Amino acid sequence: MSRIPSKPEILDWIAANPTLTAKRDIAKAFGIKGAARIDLKRLLRELEDEGHLEKRKKTYQDPDRLPPVSILQVLAPDSNGDLFARPLEWHGTGVEPVVLMITRASDPALGEGDRILARLTVVTAEDHNYEARMIRRVGSNPKKILGVFRKTAEGGRILPVDKGADKEWQVPSDATGGAKDGELVEAELAGPARMGLPRARVVERLGDPSAPKAVSLIAIRQHGIPDDFPDEVIAEADAMKPMGLKGREDLRDMPLVTIDPWDARDHDDACYAHADDDPTNEGGHIIWVAIADVAAYVTPGSALDREARKRGNSTYFPDRVVPMLPDRLSGDLCSLHEGVPRACIAVRMQIDAQGEKLSHKFVRGLMRSPASLNYEEVQAAIDGNPNDRCGPLLEPVLQPLYDAYAALVKARHLRQPLELDLPERQIVLEDDGTVSSVNFKERLDAHRLIEEFMVLANVAAAETLIAKKQPLLFRVHEEPSPEKLNALREIALEAGFPLAKGQVLKTAHLNNLLNAAAGSEDAELINISTLRSMMQAYYGPQNFGHFGLALRNYAHFTSPIRRYADLIVHRALVTAHGWGKDGLKPEDVERLEETGQHISDTERRSMVAERDTTDRYLASYLSERVGDEFTGRISGVAKFGAFVKLDDSGADGLVPIRTLGREFFHFDREAGTLMGADTGLTIGVGQRVTARLTEATPVTGGVALELLTIDGEKMPQGGSRSPAGRAPRRKAAKGKRKTDKIKRKVSRKRS
Fold first, then answer.
1. CATH topology for 69-137?
2. Where are the residues of the annotated region Disordered (predicted)?
């Protein structure tokens, strides 16, 4: 009679023979024949019911063990340089196994995100359970999606949170990862489409998507922004100590104050000014700007440096910050807190009475700020209402800052940087993360003062490094292309505002246009069109100037806590002045162009993530007001509808073309307009509208609207096709011919 194996013996066989796990294979392995097969079938069913096995197409697999041949995803090297991998076929109930990669000289180089087929060996080690040897690479960085999981009889589907996505993803029953209906999940493409839908595998469950604080988390995951610091990075930061005076100039008695938003957690810039006592510079000023010496802590090639470069910059959301550096540095040692000594790199700048910089000098110092102030209290003090903190500083510190700023304003007026008038939105949250209000940020002279001081310091940094022939990353903003300028010029001329032609364009010409339009019904249109005509700024080792600021030499120096570009400039200053061994290394210089491209990309990534988060918060804020009416302007036109920017919140909503009436609307891509085939109604950028909110979806940030009026006229009810219904519209359209032509030109900018 055949001996029936024990349950542990069956599990051991399945683990060792992943390709021979059918009941027939198991019976053959243990010599089970005849009626004994019934007992084997019973044992396998018990193991399945107990969760030790899961049946897959007449074969069995131990869910708590990895098969000897598995698909793995390579992780980033740890602090010791060891390479680990994550098993993608893990379906166990315990802690996910840790797999150490054993690489051979013949293996190709592996990087984070690579997917490989590997042969596994079970080991007993302190930090890993398996060792893997690569068989072959099967792909890297699979396409991922963030969405809401909906359970179905076949497994589930994922509804993308990206409002631009048009397809759901299908999840097989063995790839749900235990996700529950309604959960926010991250999934990756797992195979070709079936029934028209791509197949996916859930890789992580992220919880309730409707939770207020999930809004920024969605953007972080969707755009791949690193939000967890590796252990070795935290360890490096935690081991740091405050810098002393050795090798530094003592600036601790200088009243360098920080002026930031009221809720700022870090303070990376401080300033001080006083009247120049040089008799040859009557009415002039001395301005000091001190910046946290991040380069002293984040040295080239360190784990901190690698992570900072990877992130490129900090990303700011209404409810959180994803910092470039760990809090031990960004919120402590590199933050110029009140009353504590802090390492800094400072620049002393001499300006004349007209605000022109006469000279400057950089020093590596140690400072101690007497006060950490916010914009509002500083402005209130200057306006005659000082609080207890600002009162003692008003005459000796704050007033001299404003006197120096007044001189810089004169120089700014002569230089004529671009002066766009585009208010910035501010989302105010309750403690639980819900939106309490949406405001437009107030611009104070205190804000402008700090901006002018920082611009001057950035210019000084660029000029010093150019003079010392030291490579660096410039902040580059090239002038608009001829095509964009011609389009803007046509818009301006149609609106009755001339824009100079036949000469080298300067920002002063654009400011003349903006000033001429100020106060008119086309002011917002001209501001938006001017902004859209601009090139996008970037970082690069070649100096092409900064068009928007009207500056020939410009580099970012003033925010090394939150921008890697500024850290590069700090290191360049260290090298140029011979201040220490923590300057710019030859290998850093060799890859400046690559670094510039990378951090330009991360900057754009953060901008998109921040914009998407704002859209989701605004949709959440508006979700309680469905059915209400709002005023706004047409902000864009596409073949599927029109976009409206609402006045009170700044939210952008879509008016689907199907809601515009029964008539057919022609989309003119060149003009950027929609025109009704029967009524002649033309919809283009800039038109004033009244709209009803029909839908607001916080998870995607989508807002849908229905147009009620456009340029003061009611929309056609039901898309009447009768002559009586058409004639007034055509007459109205003819009466607005010039305005519509202007708006078609403006709309062309968007397309």
1. OB fold (Dihydrolipoamide Acetyltransferase, E2P) (2.40.50)
2. 712-751
